[in-house]
Amino acid sequence: PSACPVPHDQRQSAALPPSSCPVPHDKPKEAESKGFLQQINPLNYMFKELSQAPAENQTVALPTEREPSTIPKGSGDGNWEYPSPQQMYNALLRKGYTDTDVTAVESMVSVHNFLNEGAWAEIVSWEERFGKGLYRGWQACSRGEENSDDMVEKLKDGTEAAPTLIRFQGRPKDMTPKVVMWQVAGWLYPSKFETEPPFDRHDWFVSRKMGGAEKEIRYVIDYYSGDPEPTGEPVFYLDVRPAMTPLGAAERLIRWGGDVWWKASGAEVREKESLDKQLGTQWKKN
């Protein structure tokens, strides 16, 4: 999507400003808020117009091509597009990050696009399981996470509607309940649970079509940094799940509970033993 034109790591140097959509996430004065809201697109919380022209005193030329995403728009008119490197740079300057390293902008765009594609793949995975209701979701998840992809394929009947992305919003300063819980656990038992909080959070609003009706489902995405690869490449982890609404909580419980039950009940072991027995019988016949 035309998403956050900023890098997703607040712990980098000043040349790489902290992640957030190009909208203020604090609470500005009312007059300032009204003026700002007139400048942004309510569908994606981006500035309505992002110039492709080089910025004043820009020392390096940046590409102006926009890469299409694989994420369909909720409006039905094609897929979301990512901002070009030039648009990203202009948005950073417009928000006040005047010390942005222009030579790093293309890398920022690549990483951002890659993370968005990964987030959407996770959302599609959730929608494939629960897009036709909780019972269908339980059927897909009842044999554990390791078998859920196969179950999803077996349960498909050709009536599934692909999800679409209606809008999205960056909320880097708002910790989710799950993150708060882990941070408290880390404070109480640092040797076991201490972990760095996510460096960013997004909320994505997805259109789910079921039974001729359309329902808006909110997903929460927490972005984490991992230890870099031996080659120096950065590592990121995404935690993508439905928001903690009554429906979202039920979906999360079913997916997590199905996996736990499958393993704790011994079903995983019994299935393996049954498969080994079948293979042994077939081998003897041959």
Care to describe what's here?
By secondary structure, the chain is of the alpha+beta class. The protein has a domain at 98-285. Helix content is 41%, strand content 18%. The chain has helices at residues 30-37, 85-95, 105-130, 134-141, 145-155, 177-188, 190-193, 246-264, 267-285, and strands at residues 40-41, 46-47, 68-72, 79-81, 164-170, 200-210, 213-226, 235-242. A four-stranded antiparallel beta sheet has the order 5-6-7-8. Strand 6 and strand 7 (213-226) form a beta hairpin. It is globular and about 75 Å long. Residues 1-45 have low confidence and may be disordered.
Please state the average pLDDT score: 80
Number of helices: 9
How are the strands of the largest sheet arranged? 5-6-7-8
N-to-C CA distance = 55 Å
What is the H-and-E element order?
Answer: HEEEEHHHHEHHEEEHH
| Helical/strand content category | alpha+beta
The number of strands is 8
- Low-pLDDT segments: 1-45
Shape, please? globular
Binned, the helix content reads 40-55%
The largest β sheet comes out as:
4 strands, antiparallel
Oligomer: single chain
Beta-strand residue fraction: 15-25%
Radius of gyration: 22 Å
Essential attributes:
286 residues; alpha+beta; four-stranded antiparallel β-sheet; globular; disordered N terminus; lyase; Holocytochrome c-type synthase; EC 4.4.1.17; metal-binding
